[in-house]
Design goal:
The complex is a heterotetramer. Chain A has six helices and two strands. Chain A is mainly α. In chain A, strand 1 and strand 2 (about 130) form a beta hairpin. By secondary structure, chain C is of the alpha/beta class. Chain C has helices at about 5-25, 35-45, 65-80, 90-105, 125-135, 135-140, 175-185, 205-210, 220-230, 235-270; strands spanning about 50-55, 85-90, 115-120, 165-170, 190-195, 215. Chain C has a six-stranded parallel sheet with strand order 3-2-1-4-5-6, with helices on both faces. In chain C, helix 4 links the parallel strand 2 (about 85-90) and strand 3 (about 115-120). In chain C, helix 3 crosses helix 4 (about 90-105), helix 5 runs parallel beside helix 7 and helix 9 packs antiparallel against helix 10 (about 235-270). By secondary structure, chain D is an alpha/beta fold. Chain D folds into two domains: about 40-65 and about 255-280, no CATH class; about 75-245, Rossmann fold, CATH 3.40.50. Classes of the chains: A mainly alpha, B mainly alpha, C alpha/beta, D alpha/beta. Chains in contact: A-B, A-C, A-D, B-C, B-D, C-D. Chains A and B meet through helix 1, helix 2, helix 3, helix 4 and helix 5 of A and helix 1, helix 2, helix 3, helix 4 and helix 5 of B.
């Protein structure tokens, strides 16, 4: 039998032992997984980022402007020296600032404008009365009331917010159930591997 | 200096990225892709810093005699992968990829599959009809669970349709409200960051 | 009983339910949903020798769910004598994609280079997708094995999306959206998706707007596809387990509530 | 007609998002500095920014802002107290899905700073594993500052805030291990979570930890609601960071968000009425 399958099978069973309780076997494979996946990431980032977009263009492609990110990146190492560690804030500030700048229009477009405009539907048209349009509007407006923070939820606002929680519960229930299928499939896949490839009970 | 320089850099990076969103001009786009590249490069260096800190703290624990075998395994794993990559490359049939396919990938898939068990135990204790809200949660979950497997079609053709209706109307509307709220919360947070009002990341002296 | 004891019973129960129902193969008859039928019909009606692109846009951890879908679609492609060009937008999907293509090609006696090729992985997905709209050879000057593209007979006639009938993105996340929004919207390239069950609903808007041609989703989608090509595989085999696990979860919810109401009436009586 | 409109938006999205990939494609329009398809987003951005500026100024002029009670926030104090009483540590993790530039992560950092300050005050150990080295660096700064603020700089333990594997299930396996071994009395799962959410929440439950969760990932919210003691739903996470830190800038942002919500509600009502009267209208489509 393929040595790879034997190893994979043993590791699979070792991780399942966690379901009983934390134990030395799980602990060993957990640390193996952490170590190997860190090592894997190091290699991939080294190759696809540092070599492909930094070193090669910088040293052989004649792009001196890449000295900027190189210096910014090296500044991160100042964290190991307590007197210089404030320097690492410069690259961090760059990353946070750039991310925040993208986030404003992107969030407003995808998470606000698109969502609002997709919720607008005619209540009545040639096809008659659309109960769906009413449900969507009620759900959206009442859930927004739930997310209204600068007032206590009393009176009409309280009632609307309460209706909002019902819609939220429908969403949570449906999402949970929808995802069950996928989660079970993954486990079924592991059982398939154990029974078919590892134990060879199924041909 | 220690405070002001990062705030200025944060503002400049933020303002440039905000403005480029609205511009299809080649200059704007090349600035955008340059910043993306810089971002990735800085991240890669930071990864080195994070891994170095992780290794350092493990070595410290080992020298104290704590959990020696486990920590040695983790460090061995970190060292092994780059060595394999240097020896045999990272393409198909390399030892590096062999370890990935036969050791890392099965372990990841198995940790992922633990979710099936946790879904089961969470269902057992989480879906209790304590009040009206909890009952709605419970009822919706039951309908959709049945509606997703072949037996639903056997019970009634309306079952899968009901599932679909719930997903597309009441459930979708609540999801939209959540997304709108997150969008607004993210927007104001990002705005405070760019203006330097939000300085969580500058803390510590 | 202690909470830990109850957990062990629940866990052991799930193990038993899945293992036993996996050993039993039950025929649910010919399963079919319109979406899967549409995917099948499209590939079935392509002329022999037509080129399709199969993109492996998933990570290793979701392989258990992805593999049956990928195998069913690849088997259909090779059986119909279509010629697939494999690519990957996720580093982790690359080796997996190559192995799956080799495995199924071997079953049908297809030859690498003339009947199928695997170009490999490109980072910066959007740039790669758009770039292939102009020239695939520019984006992939050599294949996954390092062979220059000029030495691959299949690639001789393929310039860009104009020479490709369909892109089939096999994904566990949002990468298919890039195919839809860039290859689809800009170059008019039709896109089909093979998705994990958890992702299906996220793609509903694209499906209803017609931007996404069709979806083969989850283990159930794989089972349906398998019954269409008349070759049972992991999907069909898993269907019984899929059904019983759902029933198992439903039973757990019901028992949980029985416990809850019994303990409530008991504590009520004590007061 | 509608189709043409939506296709135009998609094309516009490509123009603005795809950047470097097809420089020649755009060559004909090289002089265009503004993409008209983004006009609605620009207008909305300007309106929103104006409202935020207004709210921040108004709060400076002394008008106090109160926000409604958020279930789960009082629980933060309780969670710290519980850990102190039991002599067990607390565990705080921001999830695998986020990175530092994500606003959710920043909100999570604000809550971390409150929790860390209380932890330092009561001398309660706080463990913070993360998948992202940049988040690790920032969290160390935040906790260090909180310990100073609480008056116990010596209670800052940098080794308790650490990076573990960028791989999703490497991270999940490791945090699971930490939870089962250190048996924290309280667990905070605040940030952007993906599939690992339920693995962490159920493991924490199995050791009897009190759990406060909050995320902007809509799908994972369902799992947190079912498995955790308290869940901050989406925007509540942002409001919570203002509530806990009593930071007037954050509180006034929450106020600004509410004002925008009122505008959204008005927009939806008017647009629905309009669409019902004139079904061919499309001015509300973006």
């Amino acid at each position: 039998m393929d040595i790879g399958i034997i190893i994979a099978g043993i590791l699979t069973l070792a991780i399942f032992t966690f379901l009983y309780r934390d134990n030395p076997i799980y602990r060993l494979v957990e640390h193996l997984l952490i170590g190997l996946s860190i090592g894997y990431a190091l290699v991939i980032y080294w190759q696809t980022t540092l070599v492909d977009i930094l070193f090669r263009p910088l040293f052989t492609g004649g792009k001196p402007v890449l000295l900027i990110p190189l210096v910014l990146g090296l500044l991160m190492f100042s964290r190991f020296n307590s007197r210089l560690s404030w320097l690492s804030r410069i690259p961090i500030a760059f990353m946070i600032g750039a991310g925040a700048g993208v986030a404003i229009p992107a969030m407003l477009y995808a998470r606000t404008l698109k969502q609002v405009s997709a919720s607008v539907m005619p209540l009545i048209d040639d096809g008659g009365f659309h109960i769906e349009a009413l449900v969507v509007a009620l759900g959206l407006l009442s859930t927004l009331a739930y997310f209204y923070f600068s007032r206590e939820h009393e009176g009409l606002m309280g009632k609307a917010a309460r209706l909002g929680t019902y819609f939220l519960m429908v969403f949570f229930g449906a999402t949970f159930a929808y995802t069950v299928m996928s989660r079970m499939s993954t486990f079924i896949g592991r059982i398939d591997f154990l029974l078919t490839d590892f134990l060879r009970l199924i041909g | 200096m220690k405070q002001r320089l990062p705030v200025i850099i944060c503002f400049l990076a933020g303002a440039i990225m905000f403005l480029q969103y609205f511009s299809p001009h080649p200059v704007a786009r090349s600035v955008y892709s340059a910043i993306l590249d810089y971002w990735q490069i800085i991240f890669a260096f930071t990864l080195l810093v994070g891994v170095a800190a992780y290794v350092k703290s493990n070595l410290k624990q080992i020298s104290r005699g704590q959990d020696i075998p486990y920590r040695l395994v983790a460090i061995a794993g970190i060292i092994l992968m780059p060595i394999l990559a240097i020896i045999g490359g990272i393409k198909i049939d390399s030892p590096f990829l062999w370890v990935f396919e036969n050791v890392i990938a099965p372990m990841q898939a198995t940790v992922f599959s633990l979710l099936a068990f946790f879904v089961a135990s969470a269902s057992f204790r989480g879906f209790r009809a304590r009040n009206l809200q909890a009952s709605i949660l419970l009822g919706t979950a039951l309908i959709v669970l049945v509606g997703r497997v072949p037996i639903a079609d056997m019970i009634s053709e309306y079952f899968p349709k009901l599932t679909f209706w719930i997903q597309n109307y009441p459930s979708m509307s609540a999801r939209r409200a959540i997304l709108i709220g997150i969008g607004l919360g993210s927007m104001t947070t990002a705005f405070r960051v760019i203006l330097g009002i939000e300085r969580t990341y500058l803390k510590g002296e | 009983m202690t909470p830990a004891g109850i957990r062990w019973i629940i866990f052991a129960g799930l193990f038993a339910v899945v293992t036993l129902s996996y050993l039993v193969v039950v025929d649910f008859g010919s399963l079919s949903s319109p979406e899967v039928q549409k995917s099948y019909d499209y590939l079935e009606n392509l002329p022999e020798g037509a080129v399709v692109m199969v993109s492996f846009d998933h990570e290793a951890s979701s392989l258990p769910e992805i593999q049956p879908i990928a195998l069913a679609i690849l088997r259909h492609i090779f059986r119909s004598n279509l010629k697939p060009v494999g690519v990957s937008l996720f580093a982790e999907g690359t080796a997996i994609g190559y192995r799956l293509m080799n495995k199924t090609a071997g079953e049908f006696g297809k030859k690498y280079g003339t009947d199928y090729v695997f170009m490999g992985f490109k980072p910066q997905q959007i740039a790669a997708i758009l770039g292939m709209g102009e020239s695939i050879k520019n984006i992939f000057p050599e294949d996954y094995l390092g062979t220059p593209v000029e030495k691959l007979p299949l690639m001789a006639d393929i310039e860009n999306y104009d020479d490709i009938e369909m892109v089939i993105s096999i994904a566990d996340g949002s990468l298919t959206v890039h195919w839809i929004e860039y290859a689809g919207a800009k170059y008019g390239q039709p896109v089909m998706a093979g998705l994990t069950a958890a992702m299906i609903t996220s793609y509903d808007p694209y499906l209803s707007s017609g931007q996404l041609f069709s979806v083969v989703g989850g283990l159930k989608g794989a089972a349906e596809y398998e019954s269409l090509i008349g070759r049972k595989g992991g999907g069909t085999r898993g269907m019984m387990a899929q059904t019983t696990t759902h029933l198992y979860v439903i039973v757990l919810i019901i028992i949980g509530n029985i416990f809850y109401f019994r303990s409530k009436t008991k504590s009520g009586a004590k007061q | 007609m509608k189709n043409v409109g939506s296709r135009f938006i998609i094309f516009a999205l490509i123009l603005t998002n795809a950047r470097d990939a097809f420089a020649d494609d755009i060559a004909g329009q090289a002089s265009i500095w503004f993409d008209r398809a983004t006009l609605p987003t620009l207008i909305l951005s300007v309106i929103c920014i104006a409202i935020v500026v207004y709210a921040i100024r108004a709060s400076k002029s002394g008008r106090g802002i109160t926000i409604r009670e958020i279930p789960g926030l009082a629980a933060v104090e309780e969670a710290v107290g519980r850990a102190t009483e039991m002599g067990s540590p607390m565990l705080f993790t921001p999830g695998w899905g986020g990175d530092i530039q994500r606003p959710t992560t920043i909100a999570s950092m604000n809550i971390l700073s409150t929790v860390a300050e209380k932890a330092a005050e009561y001398d309660c150990r706080l463990i913070y594993p993360t998948h992202d080295p940049v988040i690790m660096a920032v969290a160390q700064e935040v906790v260090k500052e909180s310990c100073y603020k609480a008056g116990y700089p010596d209670r800052y333990r940098p080794d308790d805030i650490f990076y573990i594997s960028s791989s999703q299930f490497g991270y999940a396996a490791a945090v699971d291990g930490y939870i089962s071994r250190t048996k924290p009395a309280s667990v905070f799962l605040l940030g952007t979570f993906e599939a690992e959410s339920l693995i962490l929440a159920e493991t924490a439950n199995s050791i009897g930890a009190m759990q406060i969760a909050g995320t902007d990932s809509t799908i994972q919210l369902a799992f947190f609601i079912v498995a955790c003691d308290y869940t901050l739903i989406g925007e509540e996470l942002f409001a919570a960071s203002g509530y806990l830190s009593r930071n007037p800038a954050i509180l006034s942002s929450v106020r600004a968000q509410d004002i925008i919500k009122i505008l959204i509600v008005l927009f939806v009502i008017i647009a629905m009425a309009w669409a019902t009267i004139d079904p061919l209208s499309t001015w509300w489509k973006f």
